[in-house]
Write a structure and sequence with these properties.
Number of domains: 2
Strand order of the largest sheet: 3-2-1-4-5-6-7
Number of helices: 15
Helix content: 40-55%
Largest sheet: 7 strands, parallel
Oligomer: single chain
Distance between the termini: 21 Å
Order of helices and strands: EHEEHEHEHHEHEHEHEHEHEHEHEHHH
Mean pLDDT: 94
Length: 375
């Protein structure tokens, strides 16, 4: 099957999709909509992949250039003649693909594009609805995405739920060697790990506020923050103001190879994200056998049972999150059991190799639907 994979940029998620597509025998072409200032993936493209050169993919996306990109995308499609186009997010790459008139189009939601962006403005509502009208099949990573698409008129029978997943061998329980000690994390400390981007959507500010409250009561509580973002200045200033910088480790951008070491060195994974589908970072933590402490948004509720794999707290509730952090310290003897339950859940539902097959089924379903419509 000739697959044209059209995505916004080159992220770790894109790398996984492209690697699996190329390795599954599909003749895969990659089209990149934009190149943003920060490169989020440093691994090379799979050698079997054919990267398409076109007018896009060289700079940040600009809606003023959409007509010329649309015109050139039609040229690309005529040249490649794909059997199916896989495109997402909904309001950018998938919308441009849909406007070319090519079918079958498999639109892949990236979670927040439907759960958050779709209601941001009248313009985003138009883009979302028009893309769904052009889509042969919609691939979503959780029931919340499916329900949102249904509320916008997309048929449930043409939705394929594909919760992505992780490499269960790469992300697995193991001792973190001396990783913890080299960073000054003592054996008796309770280390919280947050890997989310420092942007308002992902609630890292909520994590920091709660940590400040909890740290006053629990001197052994430590926090590891990976990544960065627009809230960097506030986060550093707030932790400094409360004299807690020595109890926080700033890991910066961590590549995929080193990421499991951070999960293994921590005691509890924490996320206060305000919107998520099936969160990949959550699945990574589960796969590494870590207890989790996450917001009670719909995407997380599809995965986590309070008291089993960890804890849930009300979205945005700093006080409740702080209290659950303190509970984690007080219940250190239960973390291993919660971690075992987490790993079991990951093995049951978050295996990338198993889940990836659902994407191939979505492609075949889309092709079959178009064929039937022509007969």
């Amino acid at each position: 099957m000739r697959v044209l994979y059209f995505s916004r940029d080159y992220t770790p998620h894109d790398h996984r999709f492209l690697s699996s597509l190329a390795g599954s025998g599909q003749e895969t072409f990659w089209l990149r909509l934009e190149r943003r200032a920060v490169q989020t993936e440093d691994r090379s493209l799979p050698p079997q992949l054919q990267q398409v050169t076109w007018r896009g993919g060289r700079e940040p996306f600009d809606w003023r250039k959409a007509p010329s990109l649309w015109w050139d995308l039609r040229r690309v499609i005529r040249r490649i003649q794909p059997d199916v186009i896989h495109a997402g997010p909904v309001q950018t790459a998938a919308w441009l693909a849909g406007m070319t008139g090519f079918r079958p189009l498999v639109t892949m939601s990236w979670g927040s594009d439907l759960l958050k962006d779709a209601d941001r403005s009248t313009w985003m509502q138009y883009l979302t609805k028009s893309t769904l009208q052009c889509s042969t099949v919609l691939v979503g990573d959780c029931l919340a995405v499916q329900h949102k698409a249904q509320s916008l008129g997309f048929p449930a029978e043409r939705v394929v739920l594909f919760p992505w997943g992780v490499d269960l061998q790469h992300f697995s329980p193991a001792k973190a060697a001396d990783f913890r000690e080299r960073r000054g994390w003592q054996a008796e400390d309770c280390v919280l790990l947050c890997t989310r981007s420092w942007e308002p959507l992902y609630g890292v500010d909520v994590v920091v506020k709660a940590f400040i409250c909890a740290a006053k009561e629990e001197p052994g509580l430590k926090l590891a923050l990976l990544g960065g973002g627009s809230q960097s200045g506030w986060i550093h200033a707030e932790l400094e103001r409360h004299d807690l910088l020595d109890r926080v480790h700033f890991g910066g951008q961590v590549n995929n190879l080193r990421l499991p070491d951070y999960y293994r060195a921590a005691d509890v994974y924490v996320s206060a994200s305000h919107s998520d589908g099936s969160s990949v970072s959550l699945m990574e933590a589960l796969a590494c056998g870590k207890a989790v402490l996450v917001s009670d948004i719909p995407g997380n509720l599809e995965w986590i049972t309070a008291g089993q794999e960890g804890w849930l707290f009300r979205d945005g509730d700093v006080d409740e999150l702080a209290q659950k952090m303190i509970e984690a310290v007080c219940q250190r003897d239960q973390l291993a059991a919660k971690g075992n339950a987490a790993r079991k859940l990951a093995e049951q539902r978050a295996n990338w190799d198993d889940n990836f097959q659902k994407l191939l089924q979505a492609y075949q379903m889309a092709c079959d639907l178009v064929k039937r419509s022509k007969t």
